[in-house]
Amino acid sequence: MVIKVEGLVKKYGDLVAVNDLNLQVNQGEVFGLLGPNGSGKTTTINCILSLLSYSKGEIQVFGKPMAPDAYDIKRNIGVIMQNIAVFDELTVLENIDYFCGLYINDKRKRRNLVEEAIEFVGLRDYKKFVPKELSGGLLRRLNIACGIAHKPKLIILDEPTVAVDPQSRNNILEGILKLNRDGATIIYTSHYMEEVEQICSRICILDKGSIIASGSKEELKSMIDMGEKVSMEVFDFKEQLLRDMKKIPNIQSIDYKGGRITVKFSKASNNLIYLLDYLKEKNIKFGKFYSELPTLNDVFLELTGKELRD
Ligand SMILES: Nc1ncnc2c1ncn2[C@@H]1O[C@H](COP(=O)(O)OP(=O)(O)OP(=O)(O)O)[C@@H](O)[C@H]1O
């Protein structure tokens, strides 16, 4: 086991930011910590890294108790924090070399590792640029290169794709999967459910400092009653229609917004057939029609009564 957290409690004054949290991260996983802003993801990560003191709990990393001076453990961890932490006056190459040099003394070895990291994040054409000359997405990639150049066994990324363009986002997500294939265990925190679904093999959903559910995305989705969600464009909408449609079997909820009706069904057979039969029988005209399976946002909504999205 790479990380074991038991009974972690972290308070800021009266505010309980992390509340009796237990989690385990196994070797080789891409482990996702998913939760809305303020749910305690960064605080949990900072406690795991011993960057913050905490009120209660036990934390082990690589089977040993974690402590602020546990340098043998820290050497094997790469951290990519939410806030970009690079030196403004150093170039891309010098920044990566500096951070890699905190762990690797041998100059030749370090040169190779730095070059590898530059290739990895796709910054070959920007080696001599200073941070202020880079776009937001390229700066994020530099931040990542600084955290991974020394080839850590455990890589922790805290919201690494906030405010980046789609191309850099894909580059970052693909890069994380490659690091994992090359042997690193990954912890990935995000409030973007799509990203967590895309790359994480196991996910913990955090709300108000507590884990409310955990498992693979399939396991999480099987925990809720919702079976599918249908969204359809309607013409000549009248409130009465929503009330009438509630009679269709297995409907959990029905809403109208922006010219579309969204219907959530509980898990059951023939939901779409019931709906289409009803629309045909009542001669209700509809335009575009989509059916989707539950998302992690639906899981969050059913478990907490609120949206995961901002
Ligand atoms: N230094 C601090 N002092 C006081 N309260 C804090 C401090 N840091 C965080 N908090 C509070 O603790 C709670 C958890 O914050 P945390 O940053 O861990 O959440 P998060 O899930 O990482 O959110 P975000 O994605 O917005 O960073 C929030 O209510 C936040 O306001």
From TrEMBL:
Spans traversing the lipid bilayer: none
Sequence ranges assigned to domain ABC transporter in this UniProt record: 3-233
Any one GO molecular function term: ATP hydrolysis activity
InterPro entries assigned to the protein according to its UniProt record, in alphabetical order: AAA+_ATPase, ABC_transporter-like_ATP-bd, DrrA1/2-like_C, P-loop_NTPase
Keywords carried by this UniProt record: ATP-binding, Nucleotide-binding, Transport
UniProt-listed PROSITE patterns: ABC_TRANSPORTER_2 (PS50893)
Keyword Transport attached: yes
Name used for this protein in its record: ABC transporter ATP-binding protein
